[in-house]
Amino acid sequence: MSDTHSHNDAHRGFETTAIHAGNTADPVTGAVVPPIYQVSTYKQDGVGGLRGGYEYSRSANPTRTALEENLAAIEGGRRGLAFASGLAAEDCLLRTLLSPGDHVVIPNDAYGGTFRLFDKVVSRWGVEWSVADTGDVDAVRAAITPKTKAVWVETPSNPLLGITDIAAVAQVAREAGVRLVVDNTFASPYLQQPLALGADVVVHSMTKYMGGHSDVVGGALVVNDQTLADELAYHQNAMGAVCGPFDAWLVLRGIKTLSVRMDRHSENAAGVVEMLGRHPRVTHVLYPGLPEHPGHEVAAKQMKAFGGMVSFRVEGGEEAAVEVCNRAKVFTLGESLGGVESLIEHPGRMTHASVAGSLLEVPADLVRLSVGIESIDDLLADLQQALDN
């Protein structure tokens, strides 16, 4: 088992790395795709004699190892770890980094499940948290206390598509001696490389763009620090919320087409944004690719393209927003994001219901789109009829 990718891999293009890292041809058959090792335990070569380092699939599984090597390579990290879900990855990270009495700065715009983890679960363990606008570097600096152990960032954020300057916040975190965690789910490793910008930990819901086909649930952590990597791996095994072999295989397959999918997601999203900006019932479009977006210049600096997530607000308030969601036909009404098919949802009632009444509460007239890779004309026509009716 290797916890690093080779020196030569580091100089390959992203697309080559995504296809080949961790994907070694099977030595027995020559199969070019790693097998699904659907196995729980392994024959040992004598007591304590592990063959290839494998003893029990919670601790390690060859299919998961292939994915974890791939994750490290595409994020430019030293170690990748794969989990049963994005929240399982976050839980492992928080219980590794934090002790009772510690403090975390979290963004004022974050995935509802992440907020729920802090507000309802980790807080019962004696961990404190406070909210800051992570798009404002001074606000992040002001939020850090002597008890702070981590600053948590989503960029682009969910669901308001806010942008955080990763390099600037990383500098603030370094000066304060705290870890910077970046949830890179919305951008994907193809569009953004937080570790190269100074982040300590990258978090992913692999369910989204990495898997890419709405057929798998998984999570990932990627780090550069070997000591932290070892601590995370210990907790991954001790807590046990690991990615199963078939799920790992599906994500590996998805990552091979990540670059071409993200190019189309971004291209289609730009077309959708242009159409929404002209529609009289749309009061505001949230997309970092727009020049008027407050984070546009930072996004242009740290992202390859602006991604496939778009949010917008409609006149008529909450009921009007819900009706737009209900009238869509090509856009499927559903939670999650990042699949090849386009999704539409009402964050206030769906993905972000857990933040209602909090500092992270989202506007009631907000609609969130995960723009897929269908024909752009069909997507535009669908949104037009959903808004016009």
Main β-sheet description? 7 strands, mixed
Helical content stands at 25-40%
What distance separates the N and C termini?
Answer: 57 Å
Strand content: 5-15%
What shape does the CA trace take? globular
Please provide the count of β strands.
12
Q: What is the gyration radius calculated from CA atoms? A: 21 Å
Order of helices and strands: HHEHEHEHEHEHEEHHHEHEHEEEH
Give the count of helical stretches. 13
Widest sheet: strand order? 1-7-6-5-4-2-3
What class do helices, strands and sheet pairing give? alpha/beta
Mean pLDDT score: 94
Low-confidence stretches: 1-8
Give a quick summary of the entry:
The protein has helices at residues 14-20, 62-74, 86-97, 112-121, 137-143, 166-176, 188-191, 226-239, 245-256, 258-278, 296-302, 317-327, 376-388, and strands at 79-83, 103-107, 128-132, 148-154, 179-183, 201-205, 219-223, 282-286, 309-314, 332-333, 343-345, 366-370.
Topology:
Layout: H1 14-20, H2 62-74, E1 79-83, H3 86-97, E2 103-107, H4 112-121, E3 128-132, H5 137-143, E4 148-154, H6 166-176, E5 179-183, H7 188-191, E6 201-205, E7 219-223, H8 226-239, H9 245-256, H10 258-278, E8 282-286, H11 296-302, E9 309-314, H12 317-327, E10 332-333, E11 343-345, E12 366-370, H13 376-388
Task: Explain what you see.
The chain is of the alpha/beta class. The chain has helices at 14-20, 62-74, 86-97, 112-121, 137-143, 166-176, 188-191, 226-239, 245-256, 258-278, 296-302, 317-327, 376-388, and strands at 79-83, 103-107, 128-132, 148-154, 179-183, 201-205, 219-223, 282-286, 309-314, 332-333, 343-345, 366-370. A 7-stranded mixed β-sheet has the order 1-7-6-5-4-2-3, sandwiched between helices. Strands 8-9-12-11-10 form a 5-stranded mixed β-sheet. Residues 1-8 have low confidence and may be disordered.
